[in-house]
Amino acid sequence: MTTIDHSLDRAGDAAMARYATGDDGAFTAVYAAVSPRLRSFLGRRVPDRALVEDLVQETLLRVHRARARFVPGAPVMPWVLAIARRQMVDAHRARRHEMPLEEVGPARPNLNPTVGDGPASAEEIVAAKQVAGTLNDAFARLSPPQRAAFELVKGRGLTLVEAARELGTSVTGVKLRTHRAYRALRSELAAAA
């Protein structure tokens, strides 16, 4: 049976309340209160110790970035563990798409290229750079909320629910922002073609 040190919880809650309102020095106390339980929580769910450490650091970075949204008086651990769960899911998704090097095999040059294989022509390279430039310019012109929603959903692969939590808005709000961003980017590409 695990004993929870409630005095550590109270100290962490108080430190996080100070940190959320701008007391940067309180982070040391937040770290001392949160990191052991965070490591334990992640360690029971993730077998890779290096990944556990990465997730702890990433979670604490997210805590820092979201500290203004922390509700003073609320317990800090449930909030931190919710952030850690999202980081764990994101890491799982990212790793699911990775291919181990041993599965890739040795690189072999293509000695008999057919149409569509081989190096790109100068025209293809220029066209690709123009499309990339058009997309970058169009992305920069999106409103900040549209850009953020599009990046989370399409760029990082978060679900609408996860993106809504991250942005502090509703799922419908994320859908609208993402759809409007997609439409704007698509019309910019069509105009450039």
How many helices? The count is 9
Proportion of β residues? under 5%
* Largest pleated sheet: none
Principal-axes shape call: elongated
Rg calc? 22 Å
The mean pLDDT is: 79
Number of domains: 2
What is the second-level CATH architecture of the largest domain?
Orthogonal Bundle
Number of strands: 0
The CATH topology annotation of the largest domain reads as Rna Polymerase Sigma Factor, Chain: A
For the termini, the CA-CA separation is: 66 Å
- Pairing-aware structural class of the strands and helices? mainly alpha
Structure write-up:
It is a single chain. This protein has 9 helices and no strands. The chain is mostly helical and 193 residues long. The protein has 2 domains: 6-96, Rna Polymerase Sigma Factor, Chain: A; 122-192, Arc Repressor Mutant, subunit A (Orthogonal Bundle), CATH 1.10.10.10.
Secondary structure blueprint with pairings:
Layout: H1 6-20, H2 27-43, H3 49-65, H4 76-96, H5 101-104, H6 122-141, H7 144-155, H8 160-167, H9 171-192
Brief digest:
This protein is 70% helix and 0% strand. It is mainly alpha-helical and 193 residues long. The protein folds into 2 domains: 6-96, Rna Polymerase Sigma Factor, Chain: A; 122-192, Orthogonal Bundle (Arc Repressor Mutant, subunit A).
